[in-house]
Amino acid sequence: MSKHENRDPINLLGFGVFIIIVSLIIINFPNVFNDLFSWFRSLEFGKIIIIPNSLIWPLIWLLIGGGVWNLASCGIRLLTNINKRKSISDGFRGLFFLVSSFFLREYSYNLISFTSLLSSLLISLGTLIVLSSILSYKYLKHN
Description:
By secondary structure, this protein is an all-alpha fold. The protein has helices at 9-28, 32-42, 53-80, 84-108, 114-142. It has one domain (3-142). The longest helix has 29 residues, at 114-142.
């Protein structure tokens, strides 16, 4: 097998999709980098500083775009038999991104508190890790 036969073309597609998503965010939120750098400058060691409102919606867009792409990547991998084992992690990563964007949206509308946001994200992450591990084990065991 040559070196080129082991490459996964979907990884390169994912990088292209990421660039497109970031470009769309920059077009729709032109001050995103200024806000991001201001937030980074305000960070202090040992102190939690909540993400500013001006960065919440760009983050939601990033999570939705990443979530949709990861679910699409999962489907492409399953349909084309390209690295099918990675499709499980792609699918669950996509689900986590979409669930995270939902909770962040709820937080942005003041429907849940920051503590509830963090708790919800951690519960979602833990649940998806457990489900992904179980599915991976069953899939790898039978293939």
